[in-house]
Amino acid sequence: MTRSRTPRKGAKRRAGSRSWLSWLFKLSLVGLVLLAGFAVYLDAVVQEKFSGKRWTVPAKVYARPLELFVGQKLSKQDFLTELDALGYRREGAANGPGAAAVNGNLVDLHTRGFQFYEGNEPAQRVRVEFSGDYVAGLNQGSGAKLAVARMEPLLIGGLYPAHHEDRILIKLDQVPPYLVETLVAVEDREFFNHFGVSPKGIARAVWINATAGQLRQGGSTLTQQLVKNFYLTSERSLTRKLTEAMMAVLLELHYDKKEILEAYLNEVFLGQDGQRAVHGIGLASQYFFSQPLGELKLEQVALLVGMVKGPTYYNPRRNPERALERRNLVLDLLAQQGVVTVEEAEAAKKKPLGVTKRGSLADSSFPGFLDLVKRQLREDYREEDLTEEGLRIFTSFDPILQLKAESALSETFKRLSGRKGLDAVEAAMVVTNPETGEVQALVGSRQPRYAGFNRALDANRPIGSLIKPAVYLTALERPSQYTLTTRLEDTPFSVKGQDGQVWRPKNYDGKPHGSIYLYQGLAHSYNLSTAKLGLELGVPNVLKTLERLGVHREWPAYPSMLLGAGALSPMEVATMYQTLANGGFNTPLRGIRSVLAADGEPLKRYPFQIQQRFDPGAIYLVQNAMQKVMREGTGRSVYSQLPASLTLAGKTGTSNDSRDSWFAGFSQDLLAVVWMGRDDNGQTPLTGATGALQVWAGFMKKADPLPLDMPMPDNVAPAWVDAYSGQGSASGCPNAVEIPYIRGSEPPPGQPCGMLEAPTENVMDWVRGWLN
Amino acid sequence: MAKWWISVVVASALVSGCSSVPRGSIPVQDSSGNLMADEQGAFAGRGGVAQPQQPQTQTQTQTQSLPEDSGVVVMVPGGVSSAPLETYPDGSSATPSIYPSAPLSTGPAPGVGGYQAPSAPSMPSGIPSGGSLAADEQLDGPVLALLTSAQQQQSGGDLDGASSSLERAQRIAPREPQVLYRLAEVRLAQGDAAQAEQLARRGLTYANGRPALQASLWDLIAQSRERQGDPAGAAQARERARVHL
């Protein structure tokens, strides 16, 4: 600027001596040269940023895709919940992707198609027939049977860079009808005719603004708006306005209208979601309607375009009246300009705003699980790869199970609300699939939407009796010494620990239980017999078993460890119980399945990996004892909520003075760990059974899992024993019960007692009383 | 009630699924089901609950001889009502608390295999969990479709894709040993012999009563051990494979 002033001053001084015309000519020449230089510079700026990668896109995190197949356990209600989350429109007939029609037990839908790691799932018409809680039929639109189909996965969050700018890039050929016409009509009527700036547009803007009342217009073309957002700061000055105009012209010189329009649609700012800035019409469509852009209808298009003028002022969630008024104004304008007919505009004006309740892909929805995903990703990727490259992260997250876990938690808190001190009690929960090792749901706080201390991963608390299966597993791995019916003495004792202190364990009820069967020590969670057994086995051996179960802690081999003095996070407990649930095969718990690059190229898979750590026979016996926990032991209250046919295995845990209330357990296809306690480690009014178990049972009731059914390993055989003596008996003998043993460790068979005279009624009475 | 009905539907779907021979999946020969005889004998003594293996075996033989015919076979669904009660302690429910010698519990005792009819209720997808059918005959809709895609991906050189499809199948039918077998095969092709062995071993825990498949799994373990530089272990596994054939 200073340089351009100098020649002007010189011109004034020498005005008399030469012809002013000549000077003006030279002056303009210099000015032109300078301007040209500036233009060359601006041109470089324009091209540099416009060619190549124009935006960084945060990684997107997806839930598991819902699989559909005949025989699948899926209730219609859960399916509709999923469809709603995916933004399916309920219509009379499923016409076009993203539409669903519900008719009694039939749901017709048109899926959207999606690119997965191993291939493309086509968009297609699907008819799902439900019967009870199962999928009974699955057909294509044509009526042909469909073996398996996958829904597109729910987007559950992203990994945002420091400036929190988020977008979903779109291409011009993906936009819905009317979008371009509406944008042009509202923002820049001359767009297809001007060269970047529009004198006509400015003139009209001045006129309209002068006569006022109507749709207020700025004089900027779409190109200028793009330049402003893309290259310049929001400073308002004449120089900036001129630079903007020059850059707009330059941009138009190099790129065609189509490219400029596409860039505009991807750049435009349309709202703020907490810290996250919603950029681009593609993301706005997901954010406000939970729908892909291409599916938007006239009234939705009109709303989004109308919002360009003031995304905060016209935010349809915060200011619905204003937004509606603005939308209808846009629709009128479209009718005025002949883009749509008056009838079409009037019909669209009658439609509600149609925005979803909250940002359905707000990264605040499932903060606990996303935290887990981010931690796993940060082990493998650099931060900038995650926040800039538009990676697509496919996870095992199951939104249906997550919602069930969350509601089981809140309902239990409500039910327990009378208890003193409950307000300060926090909670965490981990839900996995024991057969695949995938994390399906995760709750890190009593307020599951609240991102903060993730207790499921970071709360390390004494696990109490949750450790006991490791003690009994260590014993049952030595079938020549221990079986489920080995006698244990549940009597008081004391032992001098390595730390020099005398350790005197006590039972929870304060009483010794005398001579008991081994399995009863676990079922009733007796401390005396368990501690004795653990000391017999050797504390280091029990700790070794824990290590093999997947717990990697360097705990000192103190006797108190046998009763769970060591602290673990709920996630670590889930790993430990996973190995018990999965037949003795350890699986590292995974939340991520695969990662795709922005262009769909497969990048990385997190494969299913297992390692056999235990003899399936020993695991079978431990599972059997853990089933007794549920049938007759400390976990038996579950069957007041759950059907007796549902075989489950689990263990309660309560740390000293009820500071921690734990429950870990599993069915065939679902494992859940629940922790409740105070962040300040204070006392709670809960034991494992009265607190965590209640949440667990509530969750299992909602999730309705498959009963536990581990195939009996080759080296296990059931044998009849007398319930009182533990000696071998035979089928049909009084008091004979069947107990599984590692082959060769069973008691010698007893004499047959003749046919069983079935005292059915008595049995049923007794069982009924015992189950209730 | 609804679940019961479903298992009937599933059973019939299974039967009709059996009549089509899947394209090139598992190199396991179809061997007759009679090797199951002693296995069933072993089960027979325990409570007399209808074992789903048995109807399936019959179904299978039927389908094999009449490949076009797909009769409907009703599998007996398990559940509470079918869980046998062995006995109860003399006296009453007060007994369990007897001190010092509490008796063994005698209720509907937890899953010692025979207490429940395992596969019909627990595998509503129609994929038997431990049936006696010969290897690749019993897969139905979704699993078969996914194993087929995996096969195509593998022959096209896309091992990661094949792996991904197989894990998808595994999520649908986690206890189907054929899926684990195929997954182990792909892992071996990917050069991960250790995982191949582990997956095959997991498959074995679900392959009771399916001798041909057991033999194939042992054979795969043998190959994996060879790759891991364990010829002795490989020889042992081969021995096991021969026993099962």
Structure commentary:
The complex is a heterodimer of chains A (772) and B (245). Chain A has 772 residues and is an alpha+beta fold. Among the domains of chain A are: 2-50; 70-147, Penicillin-binding protein 1b fold (2-Layer Sandwich), CATH 3.30.2060.10; 161-350, Penicillin binding protein transpeptidase fold, CATH 1.10.3810; 716-771, no CATH class. Chain A contains 24 helices and 32 strands. In chain A, strand 20 (495-496) and strand 21 (502-503) form a beta hairpin. Chain A is elongated, with a radius of gyration of 35 Å. Chain A starts with a helix and ends with a helix. Chain B is mostly helical and 245 residues long. Chain B has a domain at 141-244: Serine Threonine Protein Phosphatase 5, Tetratricopeptide repeat. Chain B has helices at 2-18, 37-44, 53-65, 119-122, 141-155, 159-172, 177-189, 193-205, 211-227, 231-244. Chain B is globular and about 45 Å long. Chain B is built from ten helices and no strands. The model of chain B is unreliable at 8-100 and 108-137 (pLDDT under 50). At the A-B interface, strand 22, strand 27, helix 22, strand 31 and strand 32 of A face helix 1, helix 5, helix 6 and helix 8 of B.
Helix/strand layout:
The complex is a heterodimer of chains A (772) and B (245).
Chain A (H helix, E strand, L loop, with lengths): L1 H12 L6 H31 L8 E4 L4 E2 L7 H10 L3 E2 L8 E5 L2 E5 L3 E3 L2 E3 L3 E7 L2 E7 L8 E2 L4 E5 L5 E3 L11 H9 L11 H13 L10 H10 L6 H17 L2 H11 L1 E5 L2 E4 H10 L8 H10 L12 H17 L5 H9 L16 H12 L4 H6 L3 E4 L3 H17 L9 E9 L4 E6 L11 H4 L2 E2 L5 H9 L10 E4 L4 E2 L5 E2 L10 E4 H6 L3 H11 L1 H11 L17 E2 L1 H12 L3 E2 L5 E5 L5 E4 L5 E2 L3 H16 L17 E6 L5 E7 L4 E8 L13 H12 L12 E7 L13 E7 L17 H12 L1
Parallel strand pairs in A: 1-15, 3-4, 12-14
Antiparallel strand pairs in A: 1-11, 2-10, 4-5, 5-8, 6-7, 8-9, 13-14, 15-25, 16-17, 16-30, 18-23, 19-22, 20-21, 24-27, 25-26, 28-29, 29-30, 31-32
Chain B lengths: L1 H17 L18 H8 L8 H13 L53 H4 L18 H15 L3 H14 L4 H13 L3 H13 L5 H17 L3 H14 L1
Helix pairs in contact in B: 5-6, 6-7, 7-8, 7-9, 8-9, 9-10
